[in-house]
Amino acid sequence: MAAVPSHEFPITMGTELGARSRSQVFLAMQGRFNGDDRKNCKGFTYSKDGSLFAWCNGENVNILGTLNGQLLHTLDLPKVALLAFSPQSNILVTWQPYITTKNNVHGEPNLQIWDLKTGQCLKSFFQKKMQGWCPCWSEDESICARNVNNEVQFFEGNAFDKIANKLHLQKVTDFALSPGPQPCKVAVYVPGSKGAPSFVRLYQYPNFDGPSSALANKSFFKADKVTMLWNKKGTAVLVIASTDVDKSGASYYGEQTLHYIASNGESALVQLPKNGPIYDVVWNPNSVEFCAVYGFMPAKATVYNHKCDPVFDFGTGPRNAAFYSPQGHILVLAGFGNLRGQMEVWDVKKYKQISKPQAADTTYFSWCPDGEHIVTATCAPRLRVSNGYKIWHYSGAVHHKVEVAANSELWEVQWQPFVDGAFPEKAIKYQTVPNDVPSIDAKPAQAYRPPALRNKPITSTKLHEEEPPQNMKPQTADKQLSKAALKNQKKREARKAAKQESKPEVIQEAPSDPEPRQCAEGHGDPEVEKKIKNIKKKLKAIEQLREQEASGKQLEKNQMEKMQKEDGLLKELEDLELGL
After folding, report:
1. pLDDT of 427-476, one tens digit each?
2. Cα 106 vs. chain centroid, distance in angstroms?
3. Residues 6+ apart with CB under 8 A from 246
4. CA 166 to CA 206: how far, in whole Å?
5. Which helix (H) or strand (E) segment is 286 a member of?
6. Is the pTM of this model over 0.85?
């Protein structure tokens, strides 16, 4: 068994030895469980609160209590490949591949629902596809839902013999239940056909009587599939709409757009200033802001508030993923997969960078529930060499490292979960914690230089001009204003200059007024300057919308309303600047 240091939390790893000849599952759980070395271990999972642990080994499915290491149930299911617990740990769902034979052309039900109190099977269903295999529960388990043949079926109180409600929509292909307290809401996706647009609708359970009962509706033409992401409070959902093919030819990966839909009926298209794919979108656990990573490399990353207004722009860099800490106080922007594993760790409240470690060949990343440690791993089948994992402190220090033997493969790594609130937010440390594992990374390889250039000075050239974070960008007024606003600004400056020339020369005298008077060349009222800055920012956004409209892009209603405010903003800006 590979054990982690005592100050760390339990972490689970699954390894495969001898190219699928032997499998092992290890659980580092204070020595209460030493592992399972039987053949063909296919997977494992924790319950949401971490109190239960289940794994399948090609012979049966075992359920273990993590508090005392006691084996609770053993289920005779040799072909199970996927496992999942219900939110309150009352149910275990198992799935095995759907198989038909000559003697049984219809096959057998391959999705089983098990009562963990009794160990008995409550219900068996047919579930041919692996995609969307697992039923979805509300957080209190009062509702469970499955997508079956153009409808979403609902069960209540874990009674699976009777369908309590149905949401029937022709060709409905995906749905997502909201987290958080009751009342439960459901988002459903129906792809477009015969010229009709695709749409996502939000309903409140059990009010499903027609489109008029929907809480919100968002339709779009460019969508072959969607990803729906609820925030933690269940008040809004982000929808990433994707097409398989980008007809403009700009992207091999198709085309993506990001939409915001709230349960109060509001919806909007999230404006992404840089063209290109949407790599990742993630909600902050506080449910009032989210981060999007998007655009052709080097990609941009931007934090938006619940009104879809940008809050902070991290500039561009080699990144394709974002991860908020469980407490929401730290954000990691990372470049994994075909990128080199660079991680940017940011303090979300101050928008200050904490560290910039690098984890090459990373295929898996996860925050520890304590919000202070992370795990990065290199796993098969994505990469079959140099498998292993590292446990980091967010400051960039490595506390623990495990390397899998050359004849083995690491397939999965997980932290043991804990209930929400088990670990309160701690003050962020900007000092690097000392490494417990010295010299963990190899020196970076030097760039190749032809023999004819090796004795000459190195000149660096950049393929892309990287943008710094927003608070580091130079504030140039010319770039922020539209053409009309720039013209008005020049007129105001000319009037100011003429006014200054017409003033008689004033001899300085001792001030008789107890309050100091403001010098003509000094700075104005800070509040006025702040208002001017905000107006310029709004005018810049309007200019971008006009450019999008001119290019033929169809704008949303809220975007058209913003453009109509331009004249009023220009007049307000002129009045404020004349008053300085």
Report:
1. 888 876 666 665 544 445 566 667 766 766 766 555 555 676 764 333 44
2. 40
3. 252, 253, 254, 255
4. 9
5. none
6. no
Quote the DSSP letter at residue 520.
Answer: T
One-character DSSP codes across 36-101: B--S---EEEE-TTSSEEEEE-SS-EEEEETTT--EEEEE--TT--EEEE-TTSSEEEEE------
* CB neighbour class for 357 (10 Å; exposed up to 12, middle 13-18, buried from 19): buried
| Number of compact structural domains in the chain | 1
Residues 199, 190 contacting (CB under 8 angstroms): yes
DSSP state of 251: -
Q: Residue 494 class from Cβ within 10 Å (0-12 exposed, 13-18 middle, 19+ buried)?
A: exposed
Dihedral sign for Cα atoms in the order 449, 453, 455, 459: negative
Token pair belonging to 183: 């009342």
Q: Pick from 8, 10, 9: which is nearest to 53 by CA?
A: 10
What's the token pair of residue 407?
């004849």
Quick check: 348 and 329 in contact, CB under 8 A? yes
Rounded distance between C-alpha atoms, residue 3 and residue 88, angstroms: 28
pLDDT digits (tens, 9 = 90+) for 124-171: 999 988 888 999 999 999 999 999 988 999 999 999 999 999 998 888
Report if residue 328 sits inside a domain: no
- Note down the domain range covering 566: 477-487+527-580
CA 435 to chain centre: 29
- Domain assignment present for residue 422? The answer is no
Q: DSSP per residue over 101-152, as a string?
A: -SS-TT----EEEEETTT--EEEEE----STT-S-EE-TTSSEEEEE-SSEE
Residue reference for tokens 């009674």: 159
Tell me which residue has tokens 């800070």. Answer: 526
Rounded Cα–Cα distance for residues 144 and 131 (Å): 17
Q: Which residues of the chain have pLDDT under 50?
A: 1-8, 16-31, 440-443, 471-480, 505-523
In a domain, 387, yes or no: no
Cα(399)–Cα(150) distance, rounded to whole angstroms? 50
Per the CB < 8 A criterion, the answer to whether 359 and 367 are in contact is: no
Closest CA to 349 of 425, 406, 422: 425
Is residue 543 assigned to a domain?
yes
